[in-house]
Amino acid sequence: MTTIKQIVVVEGRDDTKRLKETFGDIDTIETRGSAIDDTTLARIRQAQAKRGVIVLTDPDFPGEKIRKTISRAVPGVTHAFLPRAEGVPAHKGSLGIEHATPAALRAALQHLFTEVPDAPQVISQQDLLAAHLIGGAGSRQRREQLGELLHIGYTNGKQLLRRLTEFRISRAAFFAALDQVNGGRDDHA
Predict the structure, then answer these.
(1) How far apart are CA 6 and CA 112, in angstroms?
(2) Structure pTM?
(3) How far apart, in whole angstroms, are the C-alpha atoms of residue 5 and residue 23?
(4) 3-state SS, residue 161
(5) pLDDT tens column, 148-161
(6) CATH for 1-115, among 1.20.1730.10, 3.30.450.20, 1.10.3720.10, 3.40.1360.10?
(7) Hey, which residues does 169 pair with through a beta bridge?
(8) Alpha-carbon distance 66 to 58, whole Å?
(9) What is the pLDDT of residues 84-106, one digit of tens each?
(10) Average pLDDT of the chain?
């Protein structure tokens, strides 16, 4: 089993249970929903200082809200993203980490990103427009595909530009993923 040294921040008990089934001995902090209290944020700060923190929230709006709250309160945390399709329940329920397969969780935790707020912007809004990732029909689906290929999660247009910059995604990686979104066509030459 892969050992995760950092403490993984998840939303609830079922997420912790799924991670323990997959990784065995793993430590988590549960936010218990999107209204994270000061005590939980203090625990996350302390964990970040001692061992590092990986934020792995559900691939939905509340999960993104939790991720943003933690990033603002605890700069320098590391992020892992589960593709939306991997969090779909087999029967009833909402999208979540607890529904992911062990393989999907291992893949998510192999692609870690730490925000660098002052990173230089190497991909522009003009690049996103030219790639049809913002401002047009099909942009949402294209962003979702790109986010999965780059392992940075689903984003809206503004979030995409921020993540590409703060996670220091290179132009080469961006255009390689874009080529896959385009089905192998080199539309950016």
Answers:
(1) 11
(2) 0.89
(3) 11
(4) helix
(5) 999 999 899 889 99
(6) 3.40.1360.10
(7) none
(8) 9
(9) 889 988 888 788 999 999 999 99
(10) 92
